[in-house]
TrEMBL record, chain B:
<keyword id="KW-0813">Transport</keyword>
<dbReference type="InterPro" id="IPR027417">
    <property type="entry name" value="P-loop_NTPase"/>
</dbReference>
<dbReference type="GO" id="GO:0005524">
    <property type="term" value="F:ATP binding"/>
</dbReference>
<dbReference type="GO" id="GO:0005315">
    <property type="term" value="F:phosphate transmembrane transporter activity"/>
</dbReference>
<dbReference type="GO" id="GO:0016020">
    <property type="term" value="C:membrane"/>
</dbReference>
<protein>
    <submittedName>
        <fullName>Phosphate ABC transporter, ATPase subunit</fullName>
    </submittedName>
</protein>
<keyword id="KW-0067">ATP-binding</keyword>
<dbReference type="InterPro" id="IPR005670">
    <property type="entry name" value="PstB-like"/>
</dbReference>
<dbReference type="GO" id="GO:0016887">
    <property type="term" value="F:ATP hydrolysis activity"/>
</dbReference>
<dbReference type="InterPro" id="IPR017871">
    <property type="entry name" value="ABC_transporter-like_CS"/>
</dbReference>
<dbReference type="InterPro" id="IPR003593">
    <property type="entry name" value="AAA+_ATPase"/>
</dbReference>
<dbReference type="InterPro" id="IPR003439">
    <property type="entry name" value="ABC_transporter-like_ATP-bd"/>
</dbReference>
<feature type="domain" description="ABC transporter">
    <location>
        <begin position="5"/>
        <end position="248"/>
    </location>
</feature>
<keyword id="KW-0547">Nucleotide-binding</keyword>
<dbReference type="GO" id="GO:0035435">
    <property type="term" value="P:phosphate ion transmembrane transport"/>
</dbReference>
<dbReference type="Pfam" id="PF00005">
    <property type="entry name" value="ABC_tran"/>
</dbReference>
<keyword id="KW-1278">Translocase</keyword>
Amino acid sequence: MSVATAPASPGSIRSELVGARLPSWAPYGSAVAAMGLAVLLRTLLDWTGWATTVLAAAALFVIVLTAWSFGIEGRRQAKNRFATTLIYASFLAAIVPLVLILTYIGVKGFSVFSADFFLRSMNGVTSRMDGGGVYHALIGTLQQVAIAAIIALPIGIFTAIYLVEYGRGTFARIVTFFVDVMTGVPSIVAGLFVYTFLLLGFGMRPFGAAGALALAILMVPVSVRASEEMLKLVPRDLRDASYALGVPKWRTVLKVVLPTAMSGLITSSLLAIARVAGETAPLILLTGYTASINFNPFSGDQATLPMMVWDQLGKRSGTTSNDLTEARAWGAALTLVLLVLILNVGARLLARLAKPKTS
Amino acid sequence: MAKRIDVEDVNVFYGDFLAVQDASINIAPLSVTAFIGPSGCGKSTFLRVLNRMHEVIPGGRVSGKVLLDGEDLYGPGVDPVNVRRTVGMVFQKPNPFPTMSIYDNVIAGYKIAGTKKNKSTMDDIVERSLKGANLWEEVKQRLNRPGAGLSGGQQQRLCIARAIAVEPSVLLMDEPCSALDPISTLAIEDLISELKTRYTIVIVTHNMQQAARVSDRTAFFNLAGVGQPGRLIEYDDTATIFSNPKVKATEDYISGRFG
């Protein structure tokens, strides 16, 4: 072995650190090859429709790329290519339906959007008539969700404070257990509960706040869980620092823990609100539906956006009314989606404002 | 102002686990006492016993007596909140309140506790405490900026300012320099020698040179093995501990033969 060190020109001597690599266009090449093979299979095997071909192309792509990589780059790189492909595929599988749904609702719903659509109720608008709007349902949804939030968020946040700051032993474990159980309660069960106790028990007619009560029941566990996580994120150092200054525990929670977690608590609360805004099942039982505007959530039927979608789709009868009612249903659905979107964006903005600043 | 501490036969527990066994120590007022020893020997745990911070940890309990100028901190009816107002503490990691400005961090002890004071008194306390912590010149132009925006060493001095703002009699420091660079460490050590003129100081440190530099007396803690309780092995003048220790384990530890 020669010790004379001629500077190794790159490429002439194979360093152990440089492994064989596929060209950078390898994934695209594999994709083209996989598509070609799939089309070939399609003609050979007389497949009809395109679903099988597309799935075959996807499977072939994984096989081609992994095998090619295995042949040239070796086992470790092949595993990496395989796993990377699967992860991207999962991402697509998650995002594609979401985008499709939102686009579909957007396109379908936007056609009926006009200033009138937001300022008119459905009062006197029959299924064969044009016009009408979501105003009555928007009022109902906003009022009921607001009432639900006023009831549920304090309970949720205070329970979370109890669990994180005070809860020790059996009782805290029981609370945690029941919160978990409540998270899984189907929304119709919450509706039935309120229906039995309030409407049947006191012989009342359906009204808006009854729906809000069921929404509150659904909101509490979501709020507890999310707030609990946020409070747990507050470092113990800060509590210690406060105790060491001779501050009582309750003031430590009030003045140190809550302000530090405020940004997270706002996010968790608005997400809990967004979670119940689209609930339909309990409202069917509890709020009734009316085509006219009802500003009083404590008396009389009150419309909500999900109920309006349900109502409009239920009124399809002939071909003309099909188009009109369906369009209004999509419009109400889009309004609901936008409402949730606004809540989410609002949550993020508020959270950013409340976030501790570092510079 | 500064008070003496006398600990008599204290046992410290985490649940059923005995963390420190039969520790007794007498700490003179206006002195700096250093606790040294290997990790897990219970020196930080013992430090937290001195201001009743140990019981904040679930399952933490203490038996024995801790006398502050003759008054038992663990006596019946003693409010841990009042104990902590008298015995302040600085932690290993600088922990300024992230939601508060530098100014608010210094007066946090009053502000969070809900003690009302007028603006000029507050201003005086902030200036005096920051000067006491050698931080005033560096931050006086930006008192309304967030405390979390300072450097690590400045944050730790801010925490010291916060601790002395409530005018404690004793100041406990749990490895206050372990997260800091040498220059910030020097600043804190200089500060300790100044604070000594007004407070009784107890400091836990892993840095033996630091113990030798700043303390008047040194206590060496050790544990017989994993799962065994920590014990106070030797307690003497710092000079004696580092030049002529009486116990073999102390000599081994300070000369680097174990731990």
